[in-house]
Specification:
Layout: H1 11-20, E1 29-33, H2 39-45, H3 50-56, E2 58-63, E3 66-71, H4 72-78, H5 83-89, E4 93-98, H6 107-116, E5 121-125, H7 136-151, E6 171-174, E7 182-186, E8 189-193, H8 208-231, E9 237-248, H9 259-266, E10 272-283, H10 289-299, H11 303-309
Parallel strand pairs: 1-4, 4-5
Antiparallel strand pairs: 2-3, 6-7, 7-8, 9-10
Helix pairs in contact: 1-5
Length: about 325
């Protein structure tokens, strides 16, 4: 990537970022959250500890209810940062995010930073958020705003190939990143498939058997929902957990119920069996035992279940 988008939670660090961004050629844009507009504001937050920091070289202070270790070097650095003046001449794109109810760094700081900056600049109000964005919803909102902003300035030099067109019901194509990472295009949907890091992948998406398990789980859930709605059963929610593994054919208790698998075992053609296990949770206080048993039986009528149990034909040809 040729751009760096800075997000640092400690207020003094953001102050430093704003002060030096203009001097770093590689930086194309800066995003700050609850940043102070001057160094004096930062030191005022822990003014009672400044003497200890000067004498001992460091001290632990409380900022927004959390402990931070402040070192003397940090105080020395702050003296050289004239934030508003630097922002006015940085010529970097700027996104200022600030909460109007921030009790650690007041909203007036955002106004001073935003007013000093030249365009392009944007401001996002983090309404109701505290300084450290301790609520997950506030953090997620801020992250989404920064992601949208960053997209305009980050240049991807990873060499990743674009996802292919939906030229078939399912299209899979390599991304050119790592040995296994693939685009998966299903109509208008875009997914990633990968392998775990333990075997050399990035774990950036589900593995092939994960997709297979997901197909079985979703098909099971949809089949049960269709049946329950048609029979007007008091079924509130369905949860399907799917596990996959390979077991020795001799240890497979269910194999005798599957003619195709049993024949393969009997003829010595199969030593290892792919075994999927479904654990189905049926939520609904008014469901009877009879309802639950019937739904369990209906799960076996899921089309993907039948596909996996029956022999399939896969025809392959070169494009």
């Amino acid at each position: 990537m040729t751009a760096r988008i800075e997000r640092i939670t400690f207020p003094g660090s953001q102050d430093a970022v704003l002060a030096i961004a203009g001097e770093i050629p590689e930086v194309r844009a800066v995003a700050t959250i609850g940043a102070p507009s001057d160094a004096a504001h930062v030191t005022s937050i822990f003014q009672s500890s400044v003497e200890e920091i000067e004498a001992s070289g460091q001290a632990e202070v409380q900022l927004a209810g959390r402990p931070f270790t402040i070192r003397k070097q940090f105080l020395d650095d702050l003296q050289n940062h004239v934030v508003v003046e630097r922002v006015a001449t940085s010529k970097k794109a700027l996104l200022v995010l600030h909460s109007p109810v921030d009790n650690t760094v007041g909203i007036d700081n955002a106004g001073e930073i935003f007013g000093a900056a030249k365009h392009p600049k944007s401001y996002v109000s983090l309404d109701g958020a505290d300084h450290l964005l301790t609520k997950a919803g506030d953090a997620a909102f801020a992250a989404s705003m920064i992601a949208g902003f960053a997209n305009r300035y980050v240049v991807d030099q990873s060499g990743a190939l674009d996802a292919p067109k939906a030229s078939a019901p399912v299209v899979v194509a390599e991304t050119a990143q790592g040995p296994f990472l693939n685009h998966v295009v299903v109509g208008q949907h875009r997914l990633l498939a990968d392998e775990p890091t333990s075997i050399g992948g990035f774990d950036a998406g589900p593995a092939p058997y994960d997709f297979l398990g997901a197909a079985l789980g979703t098909c099971t859930s949809m089949t049960l929902r269709m049946y329950a709605d048609r029979k007007k059963l008091p079924l509130d929610r369905i949860i399907v957990e799917v596990f996959h593994g390979k077991v020795h054919a001799d240890d497979c208790l269910e194999c005798a119920e599957n003619d195709a698998v049993f024949s393969g075992i009997a003829e010595g053609r199969t030593n290892m069996i792919n075994r999927f296990e479904r654990v189905i949770t049926l939520e609904g206080d008014d469901l009877t035992d009879a309802d639950r048993n019937k739904l369990l039986a209906i799960a076996d009528k899921c089309p993907v279940h039948r596909t996996l149990e029956n022999a399939s034909v896969i025809a392959t040809r070169l494009a």
